[in-house]
Amino acid sequence: MTTSMNNFQFAPLRTLDDFLLESARFQLPNFGDFEKWGNRVVKNLLYYQTNYFVLGCMELIIIGLFQPVKIALGMASIFAVIYALLMIYGPNQNPSVQQLQSVNKYAVFGLLLGITYIFLYMFDAVLLVLFAVLLPISSVFIHSSLRLRNLKNKLTSTVESIGIKHSPMGQFLEAMGLMPDTFQ
Question: Could you say which residues form the signal peptide (predicted)?
Answer without folding.
Answer: none
